[in-house]
Amino acid sequence: MRVALLFAVCVAGVRAAPADRAPYSLPALERLAQAGADVSVRVIELENGRTLAALNPAKALIPASVTKLYTTAAALRHWGAAHRFKTRVLRQGPVRGGVLHGDLVFVGGGDPGLVNAQLWALAQRVREAGIAAVDGRLLVDPRGFGPVPCVTRDRCHARIESEDAYNAPLSSAGVDYSNACLSVRPGDSPGTPARLAFEPFDLPMLAIRGSIKTLPPGRPAHIRVIRRSENGREVFVISGGIPQDGRTRRFYRSIAHPDRYAGEVFRAFLEQAGVTVRGGIGVVGQGDPSPRGVRVAEVKGTPLGELLRGMLVYSNNYMADTLALDWAAAEGAAVPITLPQAGRRLTAFARDVNADSPFAWAHGGGPVLESGSGLTVGNRLSANDVTALLAHEYHRYGDFPAFLAGLTVPEQTPVAMLKGGDSAWGTRVAAKTGSLNQPVSVFSLAGYLRLGGGRWGAFAVLVNGSRAHPHIGLFRAIDAVRADLQALLARDDAARR
User: Fold this and answer.
1) CA-to-CA distance for 312 and 315, rounded, in angstroms?
2) pTM of whole model > 0.85?
3) Exposure pattern of 313-322 as b/e (b: 16+ CB <10 Å)?
4) Are residues 296 and 354 in the same domain?
């Protein structure tokens, strides 16, 4: 696979990169490196390839969620921003008098953003097709890329229990990012139980153990919710209290059995639409015969460009790794596909970007990607690698608007850690963050700068804890990055006056 870059070196694009000289220093990040952090940085001007600042730019470090930039670039290259994943429903058997004599099959299309709105529309279309009852079962077919084994500690642990949403197991038929939602609302008076409900439906596979008390007004809420998998059921173990005057709180927890969960949620939407399923719910296994049937309904998901924005801004690991598996399947990988297989294809993509770069400093890198999300700690990227990718996307004129739209601007971001700083930081930076705390601390930031005179720049900063100093404070790293980029923008503005 070769990446056809749109660097028109001989026409009107980037001129051959000049010697790798950096006119601006990075004192705050240099101090972090002197204090024991591993740091890799490169900042360039995109129109002419000039290096503005660099610090150990070839050093390969753990990138965390900056990995998602590669997943985004690969997806845009293959499908384009307008692509929409499809989810289908088939019937196996005839329909007579509004009754399907056979099974209804929910076929997962690998939509990383399949949510309740699409399921509601799909259920309505089944009813509009003349089906009011199903004599057989509702089958879930998740074989778009087959059963996906867990390869990270987080997801493997989530098959037993979870206190988080980010570590959901993967499935081509997953819905709501393979998360279930428990809402907690205060009771009528202190001492009474809080009102609890699963949203959007109370499903047979969901259960609650424990209770949450209503506290006197003004008291702080303290609520713990652990989801445990017990004999095929998802048990929410709860404790704590919520003040009587408190707002409703919602707790999202990853689900250990995403395929069955998708079936139960879709069956509830079918019942809401007036379609009764008389049989149970089954999951089609990888070795089972292919469930052939007649298409009953289909729903298209959100356009890819919009999905990517949500994936990047909120750093959704489930979406990124599902998309990486989708991309590997579309590129010809044999099903079933594992996350490491998808990672190897992303690694090849990243190395092609480097090889085709007009920048000499990009050619010696050896990026390694084991997933599409960055949740895997074996991923390794240097600032050279990431900056080469950013330059690559800047010159893919059809993809760049959607790629840029997924990056967050500090003044407008929902990412609290990027708040603060001066007006240049707040309005002239668009970036993707990444952070981890194991096996060492990680903070990464990569994206674009608006330099003086409207020029474009690209930058990548990776800060890892080292063997000698495994944990560097997150906000200490953020403050150093912010201070140096603010100063660089100010010095560049002054140089142009």
Assistant:
1) 5
2) yes
3) bebbbbbbbb
4) no
